[in-house]
Write a structure and sequence with these properties.
The chain is of the alpha/beta class and 295 residues long. The protein has helices at 19-30, 61-68, 79-91, 106-118, 161-170, 192-201, 218-229, 263-272, 281-294, and strands at residues 10-14, 34-39, 47-50, 53-58, 72-75, 96-99, 124-126, 132-135, 139-142, 151-158, 176-181, 207-213, 234-239, 276-278. It has two domains: 10-126, 3-Layer(aba) Sandwich (Rossmann fold), CATH 3.40.50; 148-294, Rossmann fold (3-Layer(aba) Sandwich), CATH 3.40.50.261. Helix content is 35%, strand content 24%. The strands form two sheets. The chain has a seven-stranded mixed β-sheet with strand order 3-4-2-1-5-6-7, sandwiched between helices.
């Protein structure tokens, strides 16, 4: 069992012929992902060879869905064209769109998210500026390395790509059901709360790791959701305990204003909701190992 991405997911790649798209398509195929084709209007009707696996290139997402039955798209297109690519995926009503692209203008992200809402939210958007989603041993959509961890019963949701990989590695002796990198931009399609809800409802996820970071109030809102709705153990980490106030730290969304958005404020909110919070990634992994060992 996994959330949103399973061994049966049929994945297309928007931007499959570009350098990043082709590189990571090859990686996804090696991980066992059912990549069934790609989209590039300028190269429609051609095929791309990936070590003996030939994948068709289509003009549109709608055509790719019609011909292959695809139910997920991974988007590797330049920032200037990302809005159009996501809107195309939404129009085709593909159930899952994973937007890897970094540097997407915030107004573009806000525009395609509002468009998705207006269209009835038939497409789950993950990202932009994210590593994607991986269900170890089943499927991998994005840039998360497939060999860090085996399948298991921990769910992971994270704003940070590198911390996603670190926690996957440190908890590899337990393994993961699904790892979701939601991205750190100010406007993103899937939130901590969305993932927490899905993991709570997944019968094969026993515990949840939630990685946040300074800036905004997403983690405080997640804490309220956990307190009201999540019965499974949650362990958390907030990146940025030593960040100086008023400075932009890494992600565009990681800006502290006054006392709002600090790591300590987020830690306090999560602990009030019953979440164990580590001060370092390794301490967070240790807390989760204790939870899993006691289960």
């Amino acid at each position: 069992m996994a959330i949103w991405l399973t061994k049966d997911s049929k994945v297309i790649v928007q931007g499959i012929t570009g350098s990043e798209g082709s590189k990571h398509t090859r990686r996804m195929l090696a991980a066992g992902t059912q990549v069934v084709g790609g989209v590039n209007p300028r190269k429609a009707g051609t095929k791309v060879d990936f070590d003996g696996t030939e994948l068709p290139v289509f003009a549109t997402v709608a055509e790719a869905i019609k011909e292959t039955g695809a139910d997920a798209s991974v988007i590797f297109v330049p920032p200037a064209f990302t809005k159009a690519a996501v809107v195309e995926a939404i129009d085709a009503e593909i159930p899952l769109a994973v937007v890897i692209t970094e540097g997407v203008p915030v107004q573009d992200s806000a525009a395609f998210w509002a468009y998705n809402v207006a269209k009835g939210e038939k497409t789950r958007i993950i990202g932009p500026n994210c590593p994607g989603i991986a269900s170890p041993g089943a499927s991998n959509a994005g840039i998360i390395p497939a060999d860090i961890t085996p399948q298991g019963r921990i769910g992971l949701v994270s704003k940070s790509g590198t911390l996603t990989y670190q926690l996957m590695y440190e908890l590899r002796d337990f393994g993961f059901s699904t790892c979701v990198g939601i991205g750190g931009d100010p406007v993103i399609g899937t939130t901590h709360i969305d993932a927490l809800k899905a993991f709570q409802e997944d019968p094969e996820t026993d515990a949840i790791v939630m990685i946040g970071e300074i800036g905004g109030d997403a983690e405080e809102r997640a804490a309220e959701f956990i307190k009201a709705n999540v019965t499974k153990p949650v362990v958390g980490y907030i990146a940025g305990f030593t960040a100086p106030p008023g400075k932009t730290m890494g992600h565009a969304g990681a800006i502290i204003s006054g006392s709002a958005g600090t790591a300590d404020a987020k830690k306090a909110a999560l602990e009030a909701a019953g979440v164990k919070v580590g001060k370092t990634p390794s301490e967070t992994a240790r807390l989760m190992r204790e939870v899993m060992s006691a289960a």
